[in-house]
Amino acid sequence: MTALKFLFLEDSSTDLELIQRELKKGGVDYIPVHVQDRDEYLKAIEDEKPDFIFSDYSLPNFDGLSALSIAKEQCPTTPFIFVSGTYGEDAAIQTLTRGATDYVLKDRLVKLVPALRRAIREIEEHQALRRAEQEKFEIEEQLRQSQKVEAMGFLAGAMAHEINNPIMAIIDYAQLISKGELDPDKVQKISSKIKTEGERISIMVKDLLRFARHEKGNFEPVSVFALVSKVRSIAEQRMKMSRIELELHIDTALPSVLCKEGQILQVLLNLINNGIDALNQRYPEYNEDKRMIIQAKPEEIGGKSWIRITVEDQGSGIPQEIAKSIFNTFFTTKGADKGTGLGLSVSLGIVKEHGWFLSFESMPNEYTRFFLDLPAV
């Protein structure tokens, strides 16, 4: 293990020797760096990058509180321990409230090594906590991507069918033109249709790629109308193939929301896919009641402006006995080949990260409504 580097701010060589002797007696392995004034102290912090700082409280041309302030600015995570001979109760409280790690009186140096061990233990615990948080974040990211792949699988067949139609039309139009039997006006009309079909494909592909992109970007203002329009474009063909009627009730003048667009598209698509499954379960074939409703309207919550997006289906509903479990990771009522149980769990995690709220109400064999509440920008 590499020896720690200790920076000592001390003007008394005798006191410094006593401090270092106490550390040696405690079996502490370290590399000493000794300074006596402000200039030396600043240079040592910059050049030596100490692991610990030990400082006297009072020095002839410098003081410990100023040294502490500099340390908090230049190296805020470096533990700072006062070792002083003049140290009243008020001074002790002041140094701790300003961010000192600990303090030890010079006539009680026996407490120095325990204070150091305590500080090292706190550093190790903090590092372990940071590692655990990083691992948790990485697992959540993996779950989100796994769920996104699952959602993409639901869409793949429907999207392929939707893209295939305009491609076949383009091929047919191109064959007509290639025969050279059409007059210029007819060629112009067919060329316009080819352009229209190509743009239709482009829009679908762009929306799908936006959803599929692995997003770690910043929060940006996004139009609620644009969000719903994009997710509709992605899911529209699956609804058509399931013979589901979609109703949209969204004011184009709604304010924007601050979000990671790709992640919120994922949440909305999860809710829509669940609604499609519920409708197909209740109505395997066409039915005039087989419909989904998406609406967005302003709400006032706690005196602040919010927007509520509601995704409603008139499908099989959520039985009361499982209502408390639907947001649990890997919980699913679908077969193993139809779902992993990640959709709602991941969606809730994304919504919480945004500081929003996701809730629902349901009546078995009547309806299910999911509510996404988000603050307006």
UniProtKB/TrEMBL annotation:
One protein family per Pfam: Response_reg
Modified residues (4-aspartylphosphate): D56
Ranges of residues in domain Histidine kinase: 158-377
Coiled coil location: 116-149
SUPFAM superfamilies for this protein: ATPase domain of HSP90 chaperone/DNA topoisomerase II/histidine kinase (SSF55874), CheY-like (SSF52172), Homodimeric domain of signal transducing histidine kinase (SSF47384)
Broadest EC class assigned to this enzyme: transferase
This enzyme's EC code(s): 2.7.13.3
Protein name: histidine kinase
Reaction it catalyzes: ATP + protein L-histidine = ADP + protein N-phospho-L-histidine
UniProt cross-references to CDD domains, sorted A to Z: HisKA, REC
Domain Response regulatory: 5-121
PANTHER family for this protein: C4-DICARBOXYLATE TRANSPORT SENSOR PROTEIN DCTB, SENSOR HISTIDINE KINASE
InterPro entries listed in its UniProt record: CheY-like_superfamily (IPR011006), HATPase_C_sf (IPR036890), HATPase_dom (IPR003594), His_kinase_dom (IPR005467), HisK_dim/P_dom (IPR003661), HisK_dim/P_sf (IPR036097), Sig_transdc_His_kin-like_C (IPR004358), Sig_transdc_resp-reg_receiver (IPR001789)
Keywords: ATP-binding, Coiled coil, Kinase, Nucleotide-binding, Phosphoprotein, Transferase, Two-component regulatory system
GO molecular function: ATP binding; phosphorelay sensor kinase activity
